[in-house]
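writing this on my phone so excuse typos. first protein, seq and then structure
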Amino acid sequence: MRFLSPARHRRAAWRLVLALACGATPAWAQVDPATAGPAAAPASPDTPAPAADEDDARPSGADTRRAARAARPPVTPRFEIELDAPEELHAFLLRHLDIQRFREQRSLDATELERLLSELPANARELIATRGYFAPRIEIGEPLPPTEAALAAAGQGPAPLGRIPVRVDPGPPTTVQSVQISFLGDIASDADAQAQREEIQREAALLAGQRFTQDQWDRTKTAALRRLTAQRYPGGRISSSLADVDGASASARLYVELDSGAHRRFGAIEIDGAQRYDREMSERIVRLTGLTPGSDYDLALLQQAQQRLLDSGYYDAAFVYVEPGAGGGALPVKVQLREAMRQKLVLGIGASTDNGARLSLEHIHNRLPGIGWRALSTLRFERQDSLAKTEWSSPLDKEGWRWVSLLQAAKQDTNQVETTSQRARFGRAQDGVEYDRSVYLQYDRARTLTDSERLSGIKGRIESSVTANYAWSRERFDDPISPNRGHALAVELGVGSTLGITRKPFGRTQARWLGYFPLDREAELPSTVPGERATARPPTRLGRLALRLEGGAVIAERSTPVPDTQLFYAGGDASVRGYGLRDIGVVQPDGSVLAGRYKAVVSLEWQRPIWGDGVSRSPFEHVLFVDGGAVANRVSELDFLWGVGTGLRYNSPVGPLQVDIAYGVQPRKLRLHLSVGFVF
């Protein structure tokens, strides 16, 4: 080997740098044409360049292997598991046993299958234990020859390895004997949190006496943690948990230790995104839910504040949240807003089984010039009804009250009766945290014309009135979209006088009540907490009952000319199914149906979930119902008309979608009813 002197080394380095700068190739980097392949040979104008697709046309080794694999016949199942197990475990085991992953493995042989079968009992025991069976007996029989159908299906592919008999006796199910909840952190000694501690323990104790399953145990722990972090302690966690199972007695004792961390309170409200509308207005809406600096952290208040911002109509999107972080200081409330346009025009097309096709036009002005009120104007045209109205409302004051006004004109044509009406209203309304209420004055004018009166040349009856009214409502459901339990009540009271030539006083009252009642104890097991929507419903099989009661009365002398818009009808999708909208009223001698002074409606509905595979619950429910309604001018004349039927409900994220087929007992006709969403 020859070494360069330092001076020569420097000169050689400079020559290399200059050569590279000029684009030359160093001598030690050049390829000898004599030893180089075709790709390294110097190109010349006389040498044709190789076609660009020649190399691409040659199949590579990977392509060859892929083509060979594609040419092989498809693999049919190499073995079959003939499982003898209770119905509730049969599909579950066939779906989750590890051995099933190898059914279509081409290279599987008898030796490997024997190894997999040796692991099957342990795998099956683990799976069965999640269903609450801890003493199962599992027997694996000798492999049986494959069936002729399996051999024929295999064709030229790998031959099937046979049928594997597997018998599973799960043994007695394990029952939860007790559930013990203990606490660490501030909640353990906080007197204000006593009710919260008791509620967590009460909900967890509902699991006692139930069959133990891993899903329900996980759900109970999750619900306890959510209940802990929903109020006062957003940094809470599960410190430890234990399921102590006694296989001999088929019982389980469950333990959970919750660490609450520090007691946290709300801090200042920080608004981001307020440009078109006053920042003070959005902060006022948030405060009206009870979310004020210094108050205890409460997830439900954050959710309510967010919903009220959206319901106000001023915002297309709203997010209200806190960032707990470490420590025990106040939590700033962050409000992020995306404001709605100042004006909006909405065209709607729809249909209903009550009124057929519907066309609507809606205009929204969120800040009227000069007064700053919000205006909602609507035009709606349907097969039997048409409506034009405009509603104006002021921004909320510090107590949550707002001024409201309404102008409305409507026309209804049904049951051989045409009713044309006008209405004006002015008053105040409050959307509270627990209940809503409103106080207002109302003017009504209505002209009623029957077909027989029209043929006789009579212009119909025109009546008008003015009333002072008070309305109050309260809802307490576990879920505002798809409730499982809870109740709601709404009451309206009004007093006033008729106008025109004959002026007589009258009173009007109306009430509605709706209740949901779960039918089995499993429905009481924890699945959600205030402020959070349930991620998984408890596995109730009996479902729930929904009971609805409605009543109305107009108290006046028999000769008092009360406008028809202050009287009552029944029937339709949301009233008595099996009858059309306003089919139930006071029947006249000519067959027309007019509104009456007294109304009574009752509805009982059984909503039962549909189970997809015997284990998991589908979003569909089956419904059976009985509806009844009566309308008359005297209480003694109330005669109920009944409808019975069945239906299918789909619990979508926006609310239930329901299709009902109802049979009207009196008219002896079937009627289809469609409804979307939950509305009280």
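second protein below, same order as before
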Amino acid sequence: MTGPGGQPAERVRPVSARHFVRLKLRVMGNNFRGQGWRIAMFVGGMIAGLWFAATGFFLLAAPGLADEPTYALMAAAFGGGLLVLGWLLLPLVFFGVDETLDPARFALLPLSRRTLVTGLFAAALVSVPAVAALIATGGLVLTSGLLGGAAAALVAAVGVVAGLLLCVAASRAMTSAFATMLRSRRVRDLAAVLLAVLAALLGPLQIVVVAAVQQADWDRLTGVARVVGWTPFGAPWTVGIDVAEGRAWAVPVKLLITALTIGALLWWWSRSLESAMVGAASGGRIKVRGGGAKVRGGAAKTGGGAAVGGAAGAVSGAVGQLFPKAVGWARRDRFGALVARECRYWWRDARRRANLITIAVVGIFVPVMVNFGGASFSTGEGMEFAAPDSSPVLVSISMVFVGLLASVTLANQFGFDGSAYAANVVAGVPGRLELRARMAAFSVYVLPMLAVVTVVLGMLLGRPAWLGVMAGSLFATYGAGLAISAFVSVLGAYSLPETSNPFAMNSGAGVAKSFLTLLSMLGTAVASVPMVVAAALLGDAWLWLAPPLGLAYGLGAALLGAYLAGDVLDRRAPELLTAVTPRR
């Protein structure tokens, strides 16, 4: 074949998975260029991943080192099953999923669905969590080798690789499917509630699991482990143990179960992936308010004077729409406009709304679990659960946790805006005004929830006299948390990807999110120590002093934080805009 001018045409090589891997590495390298904090976060993520990998390796290798075949089977089945569940659920409730290669970027390229899925799947394997999971499950290879020799170790290695492929396929299929379903606002709200409830149940489930392990019937658990080993959750992880125990015939069957599951997940992912690439087409009609139509009609009929009046009416209507009823108290100035805008964003943005639902669910559940003093129950088989007796100090500690959990949501408040924050930079919005408006808008939703938490907890504990202590500690911690989060959000902001997947995170952003959340929580906890100390030292007098002092402490801390962090924001506004703007 010849090209233009009679020159031989360059042969076009087909796109393969390695091109996607090289593209991901190139994009990651470009994202890190000139971003020292991103490199630091990535290195920190690698260190944390290696620590978890080493811990998992020794836990899974311990049965082999101790020559315990029974424990080896349970470790492989239950440990592998929990790993698969973690890859399924943790991206939805906490870490997000790495979208360095956003599928929507490939929508206009002539790539087949098979090529795209294969390439993105291979690129997903090049990540810190995947490498950490591979190292951790390497303990199963060591255990199988110690119990069954080289053949068992080789089969276990094959199973570990298959299990890793299963984890990655399950994670991408789940997040992609949820992202597709969450285009519907009703489904987004329902999913956010379910995920928030799931996150709230992790703590109680951990308590139940620990208690169950302490009084477990190991023979019965062995039978459960064998059943789990025949499911996709445990099949790839137990093949090495099967060879060590003389059940080599089970290996091809379990590997076939794993392969079929991976194929089904990739097919599911491909279907939702195509929808994610196309995007949500809006087929709804634009609704025009009757008042606006009348204004335009009147202006058209009555000429210039009516046109001026119609324009004034339109501006007045626009201002009325900007200020919803929830912020009717706000002044019709720059501060009020910022508050109204943020209120609308917190209600309409799926990411922000999910955080509000999490605060509502966890905020009620955790204090009840901590403060049910003397409450105990039994499972009927000798297992009893009891909580320590509640006290004003314990109540204050639980309220500190709720307050810092509520305020830590603003640790990356500018990341929600992304490149839209440029409008505030161009308009020259003062930093102090910006932060006060964001705090006020967030508090419009959070303060009623915190009040409900206080009343519900007081009713459940039967201690109405403690309402003052609870309210004082809660509002003091919340205000201090707003101040700490203001500084964190200005100095440590990071960008969120522009994608239809609400669970997507940029490479390294999951570590950044965890680190900034922990930093804000620790700072808020330290700032709230005086409230706990006062509850321990002042006794009954603190029941009356806590509400006014706690409210004054929280309000003063929030205003002081906005004042000081606002100056930093004025100096760093361009750098902040660069940090929160997603890179193409």
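The beta strands are 97-98, 376-378, 384-386, 504-505. thats all i got for now
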